[in-house]
Structures are given as C-alpha cells and as structure tokens.
Amino acid sequence: MALRADRVRRPGADTGTAAGESFERWVFEHPGAVVVLAVDDQERVCCLRQYRHPAGGRFIELPAGLSDSDGEDPLQTAQRELREEAELEAAQWRQLFELYPSAGITSERQVCFLARELRPAGRGDFALEHEEADMERLWVPVDELVEAVLDGRVGESPIAVCVLAYDALRRRGRL
User: pTM of this prediction?
Assistant: First the structure.
C-alpha cells in the first residue's frame, strides 16, 4: 500500500481553458479485498468481533482480507479467508458484487461473496496474530443483524452493505 499525489486534468476538459488546468489528487493505493457473508442453514451470519486500531475500538465484521497473494483469484482469497478467520468452508459460493468503498481517495475494490452450505474446517498452517489473536466468532440471525445496521449499532461498511443486500435479495426471491 502507498499514498501518492497525482497531477490530473478533468476528463474531457478542453486543455485551452481554465477548466483544463491540472490539479492535485491524493490516491491511497490498495491491492483490494474480499468480504464473505457466510450464512448458515438457520439464517445466521458468521460474524467476527475484533479490535481495529485506526478506529479505536472493537467492531462486528465479516470474514475478509486483502487480495495480496499474487495470481490468487478473488474467490480463492475469499475461501482462504473464511477458513483462516472463521474455521469454515462453504460448498456454495456466489459473488454478490464489487464495491469501491471510497473511490475519491483509494483504488481499493472489494469483491463481496455469499457463502452457503457451511461446515467446520481447520485453519491449516495459518496462525492468528496481533488483533486477530483476540478475535471472537459469533453467529447473528440475519434479521437481528439487519436491525443492528439500521439502528446504527453495527456500522462497519462491508457488513452493512452485504447484509442489507442479502436481505433485499431474499425479500425479492433472488437467492
């Protein structure tokens, strides 16, 4: 990851006018990430609670991780992250969408997946370290999680977007 300053011109601007003058924009280069909404057969979501230093607190989140392994497909990254963080595997995978969480400052792209037909799995040789060593796994019913997002008790954006999208798809019979 890196932070850089670019000189840019407004796309489509005539370079002969003031509108074509260049300006500076900061860009936070990011390799991208995956997010996994793992839903069991009881309509509960696998959530993780862990400390996040930049925000200064413990957050309810979904299994997720950086797309930082060269050549690894986002689905493979999602499968690995679910196994490493939640000790789960899924027989059914569906890509929900791709998001740009803050396109005005970062190049990060988040690929969000729905994982179903869950079963226990080992972490392999992955060891929980730092904040992850204190990570707690919990199961939250989808409807309770939707209410927690709408009430502002859960505010981490990937979990909010994923669970609200899941609820919308479920209500429309599109799952």
Answer: 0.85
